[in-house]
Amino acid sequence: MENTERLKKIIAKYGWPTIDLVGEKASRNAWLIIQHADHNVRFQKKCLALMQEIYQRNPHIISRENIAFLTDRILVNTKRAQLFGTQFYVNKKGIYLSAD
Questions:
Q1: How many structural domains are present in the chain?
Q2: What is the pLDDT along the chain (100 residues), one digit of tens a residue?
Q3: Nearest to 50 by CA among 15, 74, 13
Q4: Cβ–Cβ contacts within 10 Å for residue 59, how many?
Q5: Residue 56, exposed/middle/buried by CB under 10 A (0-12, 13-18, 19+)?
Q6: Which Pfam families does the protein's record reference (predicted)?
Q7: What range defines the domain where residue 65 resides?
């Protein structure tokens, strides 16, 4: 949760950390923080909206794959069906989509 709080401050000050601003690795790390911030779906939704807006303006500075993963993560977290099928779990019997 500490990383989420720090990311909130960064976004409030600078906006979403796009590839052109911080590099591919740092931008992906920001996405990883929000992707796993299941304790704060509201913030996940806010970040997704920012990412989608940026992608519409310039698709080269943000990962569309990250947008798809975060979209599905939010849908699963809110008990709705996934759009892209990116969220799954594995057990001894095989691979299963996360419950929609």
A1: 1
A2: 799 999 999 999 999 999 999 999 999 999 999 999 999 999 999 999 999 999 999 999 999 999 999 999 999 999 999 999 999 877 888 777 776 4
A3: 15
A4: 11
A5: exposed
A6: DUF6624
A7: 2-97
